Protein: Phosphoglucosamine mutase
Amino acid sequence: MDNKLFGTDGLRGRVNAYPMTPDVVMRLALSAGLHFRNGGRRHKVLIGKDTRRSGYIYEYALSSGFCAAGMDVFLTGPLPTPAISFLTRDMRADVGVVISASHNPACDNGIKFFDHMGFKLPDAVEAEIAARVQGYAQDWKLPEPEAVGRAFKLEDSTGRYNVFLKNSIPLDINFEGLKIVLDCAHGAAYRVAPQVFEELGAEVIKIGVDPNGSNINHRVGSLFPQQVARMVTEAEADIGIALDGDADRVIVADEKGRILDGDQIMAICALDLLERGALPGKLLVATVMSNMALEVFMKDHGGRLLRTPVGDRYVVEAMRAEGAVFGGEQSGHLIFLNHSTTGDGTLAALQLMKIMVRKGKPLSELATLLAPFPQKLVNVSVARKTPFSQTPAIEAAVKDAEAALAGRGRVLLRYSGTESLARVMVEAEDAALVESLCGSLAEVVAQALA
Structure:
């Protein structure tokens, strides 16, 4: 094992296959416990999960490891990833852990960590924890028997998070008269998200709220927003909201059934913040995957866009370094740093609906702010992840594509941090050119990395 134990969003893989085996996860908890334990006081770790059946495996493996490392464990049961981030800092815990593979199918699972302030761990800390897992041996300084930890069930976790979400909406705003379609992906938000919207006055049509341990993300949620879009038009609803399995991202549909991605939501929210003088430095932070149209949009409105590598934790790191308060990803991870320390799909939907109410405009009208450039993304299965710059055929194909774009578009190649995939993206104003170049590049990548 090495620091590659962690991907772009924690540890992730197929259940009962390396690295998602009970022994590795228990050793991971031991290592993390030794890292976060500081002095002779009692230490706390908060552990939450999504609705995958395999969550039971890792919940107890983590509990065992953290207790052995001398930390008291508080189990929340199924709860969104951002809820664990919030509760970790709210309860003054030393570390928070989420058992989830996010938008992946039920056969996968994963582990994410948050520090005591609710932020995801930087690469250096993950590398230190991973190195200790690799060096598992008798010289680990584990506590004496009387100093091991205990495990508790946290009974009021859902209620605490519910109140936190509602407090992000001013008291003079409610959603009475609004009808929403809410898809919770049979995932971690299946209880709390409907409660929050209903308590704020909205009429809620619920789907994806019947988890059985195996149906998380299965043809529901943010990866399949077409279902929400269809139901919005059928029910004559005002907005459709599609969360993913751990509810840290959101995709929405307007009242006409048109799907909006994270870039379009960011444009709406960034302009609102700009107009209210609430966007420090007039800065929006997004990743290399965000559409060029978002850059143009920010510039046209007197602001600027700062790009980061893919991963909401890199967005957050840049936001903290630059003093920014808003950022996100095209995939629907949206971070409102004045409210939360990580991407929160439910919170983002609440902020979007708040803008709809304040402006008295339907979502379809707000959505006209950003007209994305045509963009094509192809996922290519690869046998190895050789740096693209070390593959002459790929380098040559990229140069040819960039020459064809002539400065009116861009090419982006990157590897998935959690799967054996290369992501090939092309965007430009000319849709036909985008389609042609992306297809050609994908073929070259597939052949070169087979």
